[in-house]
């Protein structure tokens, strides 16, 4: 979602703009793991696209956007998600796990 929002994907841009406006207004809180910084910066850094690097770094620092550390508990819960939801890529599992961690306990 972050890539689609920052790079203004034509199919999702309008919907995501509304979502991020709600985050900036304080109506919603967006939560992701710190791994998202790595995920979104690799290609712009490789391409030496400093404007896109700046756009991503600004995006993840906006009010209402929380980056949470990847702790051992997060890694374990992400492994449980991976075992159950095999089609999800690892970064998405971290993101989902960060969001669910406060309300769902995996065993």
Structure description:
By secondary structure, the protein is mostly helical. The protein is 60% helix and 7% strand. The chain is built from 6 helices and 2 strands; from the N terminus they run ααβααβαα. The chain has a two-stranded parallel sheet with strand order 1-2. The chain is globular, with a radius of gyration of 15 Å. Mean pLDDT is 80; it is low at 102-107.
List strands and helices in order, with pairings.
Blueprint: H1 2-6, H2 13-24, E1 30-33, H3 35-46, H4 50-60, E2 65-68, H5 72-84, H6 90-100
Parallel strand pairs: 1-2
Helix pairs in contact: 3-4, 5-6
Unreliable stretches (pLDDT < 50, length at least 5) are 102-107
Q: In percent, how much strand structure appears in the residues?
A: 5-15%
Summarize model confidence as the mean pLDDT. Answer: 80
**Distinct helical segment count:** 6
The gyration radius over C-alpha positions equals 15 Å
**Largest sheet strand order:** 1-2
Biggest sheet architecture: 2 strands, parallel
Beta strands, count: 2
Percent of residues in helices comes to 55-70%
Overall 3D form:
globular
Quaternary organisation of the protein chains:
single chain
Helix-strand sequence: HHEHHEHH
- The computed structural class is mainly alpha
In whole angstroms, the N-to-C terminal distance is: 29 Å
Whole-number count of domains: 2
């Amino acid at each position: 979602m972050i890539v689609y929002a920052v790079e203004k994907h034509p199919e999702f841009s309008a919907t995501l703009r509304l979502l991020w406006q709600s985050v900036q207004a304080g109506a919603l809180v967006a939560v992701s793991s710190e791994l998202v910084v790595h995920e979104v910066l690799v290609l712009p850094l490789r391409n030496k696209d400093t404007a896109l690097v700046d756009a991503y770094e600004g995006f993840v620092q906006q009010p209402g956007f929380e980056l949470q550390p990847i702790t051992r508990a997060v890694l374990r819960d992400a492994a449980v998600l991976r075992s159950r939801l095999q089609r999800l890529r690892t970064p998405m599992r971290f993101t989902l796990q960060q969001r669910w961690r406060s309300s769902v306990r995996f065993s």
